[in-house]
Design goal:
The complex is a heterodimer. By secondary structure, chain A is mainly β. In chain A, about 15% of the residues lie in helices and about 35% in strands. Chain A is built from three helices and five strands; from the N terminus they run E-E-H-E-H-E-E-H. The longest helix of chain A has 5 residues, at about 70-75. The N and C termini of chain A lie far apart (about 35 Å). By secondary structure, chain B is mostly helical. Chain B has a domain at about 35-95: Nitrile hydratase, beta subunit (Cyclin A, domain 1, Orthogonal Bundle). Helix content of chain B is about 45%, strand content about 0%. Chain B contains four helices and no strands. Chain B has helices spanning about 35-45, 55-60, 65-70, 75-85. In chain B, helix 2 (about 55-60) packs across helix 4 (about 75-85). The longest helix of chain B has 15 residues, at about 35-45. The model of chain B has no long low-confidence stretch (mean pLDDT about 90). Classes of the chains: A mainly beta, B mainly alpha. At the A-B interface, loops of A face helix 2 of B.
């Protein structure tokens, strides 16, 4: 496993990417999180990339995180403080620039 | 993203309102004879290095939604195994139709 680039507490943005619309793909990142902001809760470790495993390709380990999201903006339901905790691989996450974190 | 997007694989249905309030399936019955034969087929193909469970999962989740919900658990497996074997050129689609 490579060294995790993110740490608990880091603000992140899930990439607004849709590989499944470009061709055969196997994506574990839920569609409703693409482009959404969240916060890293913990590093779960390194796991073989399921996007490669699903096609029997060599699957290098990628860092997997628990990332938490506010629920109301995702699904337009729930109360402030409700959240959704999802396992997301590092290659789907972008750090939010420091100046935006301060806002 | 639009609510109804048929291109989402069938595992990716979190938060879609059309699946709300559907009962949780609690059918944990052991596989019947058909299910055991399908699993045996999967194990033989895996032992021969012709498929992996990760590939099995991909082709299960690629089953179009109406067909997916019309099939039983092991029928989905068998559909996926057939898709994989055709994809890999091991059998022809017409041979398993």
């Amino acid at each position: 496993m490579s060294v995790p680039l993110l740490a608990p507490g880091d603000r992140v943005l899930v990439k607004d990417d849709w590989p499944e619309f470009r061709g055969p793909a196997h994506i574990r990142t839920p569609h409703y999180l693409r482009g959404k902001p969240g916060r890293v809760v913990r590093v779960l470790g390194g796991f073989a990339n399921p996007e490669d495993l699903a096609f029997a390709r060599p699957a290098p380990k990628r860092v997997l995180y628990h990332v938490v999201f506010e629920r109301p903006p995702l699904w337009h339901e729930g109360e402030a403080g409700d959240d959704v905790l999802v396992e997301i691989f590092e290659h789907w996450l972008q750090p939010v620039p420091a100046e935006r974190q301060a806002a | 993203m639009s609510e109804i997007d048929p291109q989402h694989a069938i595992h990716d249905i979190g938060g879609l309102s059309r699946f709300r309030c559907t009962p949780v399936e609690r059918d944990e019955a052991p596989p019947d004879g058909f299910g055991k034969r399908v699993d045996a087929l999967r194990q033989v193909l895996a032992a021969k290095k012709l498929m992996t469970v990760d590939e099995l999962r991909r082709c299960i989740e690629a089953i179009p939604e109406p067909e997916y919900f019309a099939l039983t658990y092991y029928e989905r497996w068998l559909t996926s195994i057939g898709t994989l074997m055709v994809e890999k050129g091991i059998v022809k689609a017409e041979d398993i139709a």
